[in-house]
Fold each of these.
Amino acid sequence: MKNLSKEDKYIQQFISELGTDRPSAGFHKSILEKLNPKQTLTVYRPVISPLAWKLIGSGIAALVICVLLFLPGGENSTPLMDQVPKISIPQVAISFPKVSLPDIDLSPIVIQSLVVFILLAILSAITTLKNLKTS
Amino acid sequence: MNAYGQLILKHEKYVFTLALRILKNREEAEEAAQDSFMKAYHALRTFEGNSKFTTWLYKIVYNEALGRLRKTRNHTIQLGEIEDLPCDSADYLDGLKSLQLAERKDLIRRGLDAIKPMESVALTLFYLEEQNIKEIEEIMGLTGSHVKILLHRGRKNLLDSLRNITNSELIHLL
């Protein structure tokens, strides 16, 4: 029994010397994170902004109105464009230096597509600028 | 939440050590300790204060780690006959005392790893946490006599495993 008490003392000393083990560095934080998960707010941000939609809509509307107004409806009707009274614009005589520029003959479809392309380019430039400002 | 964070910081080492003594694997022990703290947080309202907070917390850790151990290994508690400790134990322990602290710590760690988880836990609770038999009974869900048997067997098996480790190292040196 005497031996046992001595052993008891030794074992107590050795186990106390060994002490406790330390968990990894993030132990405490990971428990708190699990207990209180951060709520991630997902804000919906459309790819095309409302302003861009308005511009596209107004562009399309303007195109439709132009087509309706300026194209002839039938054989006998005259396009609205022709009904506009011709305004005599006073000619201003300015003598420019004669530069021989090549005549570019573009078909109406090419001109229309160029206009639409320019409009879309302006739109994308506006949205990019807006995104840059917000970020 | 901040108060509970402080509570975790205060008890994390003991909780982790207890889980490690049962599972004998750092990753598993860390997971068990984390789950225990989470369970304790959700069950804080059920803590009536009849026992010490540490006793209540260690009971959660013990059950969590034991549950994990049962899932992975076929683990049963065996309480057989008690053999008396060999007479030269004190001499051997005297020898251990003469070792360098770092060597001794390493040896004790390996010795505790070599014995059964239940014995290792009982020894840790009794000697390191200085819990009394009554509290160990509550934590482990055993009777007083079972706890005493576990402690006795733990001491004996720890000494045996320490002897085996030192003998095998001596053989390697020779």
Amino acid sequence: MTAPKFIAGQRVRIADRTPPVHHRVPSYAKGQIGVIERVCGVHGEPEKFIRGDGKPAQRLYRVRIPQTKLWNAYDGTESDLLEIEIFEHWLEPAQ
Amino acid sequence: MSKPWGPHDIGGQEGGPVDLSDHETAHWEWQIDAMVRLALSKGLISDFAELRDGIEHLAPEDYESLTYYERWAKSLAYTLVSRGVVTESALAEKARAIRERQQAEAAS
Amino acid sequence: MTDHDHSRTFQADHPEPTTDAARVGLALRELLIEAGHYTADEEQAVIAAMQGASPENGAKIVARAWTDAAYKERLIENGGEALREAGFDIEPYEFTVMENTDDIHNVIVCTLCSCYPRSLLGMSPAWYKSSSYRSRVVREPRKVLAEFGVNLNDDVDVRVHDSTAELRYMVLPQRPAGTESWSEEKLAALVTRDSLIGTQRDLQT
């Protein structure tokens, strides 16, 4: 199993694409920039279960995004956060 | 915000007040739930992802008007028909028989 | 019609649904049982196991974390292993515990469907599966929490966790004051389902 591509604390961008199959990235998160909150385990790939056996398995990460970056006129504080799990092939390094 | 991909992709959309009342799970709903778990454990479907995929492909009107377990039922039926585990006609026939039985029992 | 037809759903105290979609589900069930894919007994066993799960399971984990600081650390560091120590296992899902503090309040959602750690919390509440909760709690968590009676001032950060893939979450609520001498059992009885999801913050003693 290959080493994780990203590390905790790293800035990443969530890809903005729409594959024509089941995928687990909510539209509100696509194209957003966040920080890796933790490196999670390796799991069967949801997009690939529809046509096959979920392989190759993919590394999962938790990504943290400030709520004020996600929503216009967010009514909470600057420290409020949203955290989601994203698979490695949906992430790219960001500045 | 990117365009929602399907009727399930609703995070961030507007909505009404949350209905806090709790509903007891009906017996038939437990049976649908058990059927999904058994379909997985018996290898009729390979992963929960298949079921979610089926639900995501429901027409938006269906997604919104069906109840939670009705969506699961339709999704599993769609998936097992596509996989050839059951046929559409056998399903329709059986559903009709159930309907007739229910109507007969209601009348008696 | 014989009365040995185990595939029949109808029982006097279990009303049947009468919508087309639900009937399709029941029809599918009968076909699968008739074809021998599973038996009514296996179905009963699965249902009994599901019905046996309740928030009392999660509450036990919370009470242990409150009384055993080292366990709490392990629970937050590696939820799955700490869970197995307590006799539960939800693999392949990754059990992940989010601790509430004076400065942080956590709340869980699955916006895309309704993923939920059922073996620790029992059946998910109807509102957790609802469109309004799923769509709004990521966007306006403080407002949604207020609808549940949780009013947070700006000193407290709100963290929303969207269960989008293989993690399953439980909130570790704060231990109420005045419970220092309590047994684990008595502490566990304080813990509510909603406090484990994050739609309740303060537990009543």
Amino acid sequence: MRNVKRFLSLILTVAMTLGMVACGAADTTSSNSDASSADSTKEAAAESSTPGSYDQVTYAYCTFNNIPTEEDLDVVEEAINEITREKIGAEITLMPIQIFEYSSKINLALQGGEKIDIFESLGDFGSYVSSDMCYDITDLIDTYAPGAKEIVGDSWLDACKSNGVLYGIPTMKPIALTPMLIYRQDIADELGIDISKVNSIEDVTEVLRAVKAGKPDMIPLAAVQTGEIGLSTNYGEVDFLNDDRYKPIGVLVGDDLTVTDLYGTDHFRDLCKLVRGWYNDGLVMQDAATTNSAAAETMSSGNYFGYLAAYSYPEEDTAASLEAQVAGYDLGAKIIGDAYLSTSDINAITFMVASTTDVPEAALKFLDLTYTDEDIINLLIYGIEGRDYVKNADGSVSYPEGQDAATVPYTAQLSCGTLGNFFKMYQMGVANDASLEWELEQNKSAKTSPAMGFTFDSSNVKTQYTAVLNVISQYLPGLICGSLDPDTEIDKFIQALNDAGYQDILNEKQTQLDAWKAGK
Amino acid sequence: MEKTLVKSRKKRFSNLSLALIALPGVLYLIINNYIPMFGVFLAFKKYSLKKGIFGSDWAGFDNFKFLFKTKDAFIMTRNTVLYNVAFIIIGTIVAIAVAVMMCELGDKKRVKGFQALLLLPNLLSWVVIGFIVYAFLNADSGYLNNTVLRTLGINPVSWYATTGPWPAILIIVFLWKNMGYQSIVYMASISGIDKSIYEAAAIDGASKMKQIFKITLPLLKPTVITLVLMSIGRIFYSDFGLFYQVPQNSGALFSVTQTIDTYVYRGLMELNDVGMSAAAGLYQSFVGFVLVLIANFTVRKIDPDNALF
Amino acid sequence: MTESKAFNRVSTVILTILVVLAMLPIVLIVVASFTAETTLIRDGYRFMPKELSLDAYYYMLKQGKIILRSYGVSFLVTFGGTAVSVLLTTMLAYPMARKAFKYRNLLAFFVFFTMLFNGGIVPSYIMWTRFFHIKDTIWALMIPNYLVSAFNVILVKNYFQNSIPDSLIEAAQLDGASEFQIFVKVMLPLAVPTVATISLFTGIAYWNDWTNGLYYVNNEKFYSIQQLLMKIMSNIQALRSNSNASLLGTGAVDLPSTSVRMAMAVIGILPIVIIYPFVQKYLVKGVIVGAVKG
């Protein structure tokens, strides 16, 4: 039973992280990283002077595609090994694991003493660190993964630290989530709604009213997922300090380093009132708090006008790619807020070296290649050229004639953006460099939390956590979906939180945050 | 003198060969259940992968605290126990009733058909069942609101926000899923009853009802006692799917749907703490264990043949 | 006689109602799996949907070969596992039921204890993978957890104890039969109803299981049908929530996720529905016939 639970929570995590995954990037990073990787190559080659005795590194990664057969996987492995033997003196064993079993399998395998040298955090960074599953790479990274370090940058690496110790390297991908209104372009045109005037969540109200007036049968706003109609991505400049954005416990607001109770803020109350208004006026789905359909499904019924969510690509790309999922309805996307980056956005997918590894240096060297070496990255994602994919004239790639993701011997195409460096991958279908630039720019320009790099260790307040999380799942979905009246329920909510030991967690967070700040 | 010696040797031999017959099963349980039981130590440890299960630091009873230091402790324990009691009582009555009726049907083909159909719900996962229940109860397009209540002229009910009906709903869903499955045990027991007893009773002019109440039910007693004793052992456990998937994790229903398992799940989803989940399991098992020992002791006093051990 | 007939009639009526009630939701699932995705979301689940569609099954058909292979794995595991399990279970239960057996209570306690306490998955995992090396083999689906269930052992013991008279055993002993012979020749044939019951329970448990696969199987060659369905569903869910630009034009359009979920439920229980009558036939002497008098 316990694993059903793990599985469920994993699905939620994935639903969240996947919002940030996108594929199809061309090589836009400058060539200076290549130089550094060449240096480490030389070093590595010198170290492994005895041919035949290569370090063995097992790379466990999660795939959304089929697991290839052993024979087909061997071919890819061998192609990777041809590079790694020479460059880093190591041989790689690939261990693709289905997304839905990834966390349980990694946990079991590590605890069962199996050989896994590299794995990814998939949203569980904190718990891997607190159960000692990851190797301290603070001192090793400069020597063995300088390329990755440079590409990712120090500020992102800080997000993978706990108590000053570096435990992993985050994937390099478009990470900044920008809140948007996704809406039916055809309906907006028909009703003459000027979406360009919508610049905040408050502005959305007018649009919803117009839809309700023009199309009384339509439900203007859908839930993006169970218990969530889009408030969570519209809190503004809020750092959730390592908690799930869907279950905030003590946050930072703006540039202030004081741990704040989000639920007690006027901002939260106003947002709940806003949604409550929508709910009472019939502008949102009535059972958003318990629905079991995600926005894409709901939208494809044609009965809904739009939903609020956050994505990491430009408006047009977002709309275009979502259209495929909503039965081809004409969609538009409008940015209604700014992206905001905090620690857990970045360490959501972190590659870590297992604490049980016997080859930490080789593991790091290979990890480095997954950020710097175009060939390695594309072998991991697309497999063997000619067999698993073909290159097009514009530099993008596609599946061979008559094949698709389900039939080629090897592909991990849907995992792109979770493996190493997204910006060095071939693009699938059509190359679009402009979007890539926008994404890189968003990564750089997104406002960053003042506590970037702070990770919270919850072990002193675990008891309070369990109680508080239960209280949150009791009240929060109802409040942010409008089915609970904020005027009466927020106070009850806060009272229940305090009874559950909420304040202890806030205090502990503040203490750790102060210590972190002092140590900086 | 000689005779008793032979007898006791025979007895020893008999004990030995009986033990040998049990041996494969015993070995399996040792490998599959007993040796891995050292994992319960985790409940008292602050787990660290590097240090391993035995090497990790002791945490005393810290891992257990979260089960008690909450206002919900009473609610979740009450819900877990009350639902289990309801399931044991109602479930047993319904299962026996179904089994008795099946056995009285006489027509083999029909019994086969009925039995197969009643078993089907047991093959569905709770996730799918959650969907079905949702299809009946959801506010916008649900069957009850849209079809049944509308026809009756009753205002629609927001089922996932109204606690009142949920104990009944959960019991119905439980029965729906398990009725067929549980009745099978009783059917097997009934079929083990010596037919000549019924024939004799029929000759004596006992009515069908009398036969059921005077012969069938008393002879089912051992089976009922065994099954109830086993259920008591799991009285602090709840079927997670039934209490989590079926109410769609709706916060408004927590006061009637929160059980120990759902509380632990909701609380540990983020923390992912090995020690705390081990502690929860140990606590649930331990309470069940104590209750079973008491119950079994009582049964042993009254009716030694029917005690579990 | 008329009283008995009346009783029979009442039973039939009540059971028919129960069966219909039990079947309604199942019918709903089947209908939903044939309903167009958009209709499903707009109108909810209906017994008479406005628009029918085979999309869900087309989607599953694309995975046809894999599904067939997984059916094969599931059948093998279910039948193989159940056979071994029934043997081990009855052998364990028999001594417990013999009043002559000195350690019967100890053994009963030993068995029952496993129902209550367990050490969690990690120690079991270490045991089975490190010492028995069952990872990524068919044994991984059969051996851990399901071979001996305390619940079944106690059911069988209970049956042996209450339904088989001691005189039979004594008679066999007088004939000079060994304990093993008594077990095989006297007890097992008389225990058919309970053997049928536990076979059914064990079979269902094996068929529905996906946890062994989750823990011990990574090679898709050994995916059981449940594990496969789980995988398909979670991948759809992942694709759905992933606004993946590169999916454009690759044909992964319009994933019918709700109806697929229903189709998967149908696919998961369909083989059981098909083979159940045959299994029942093989258990002629089992529950049903044994239970039906006259």
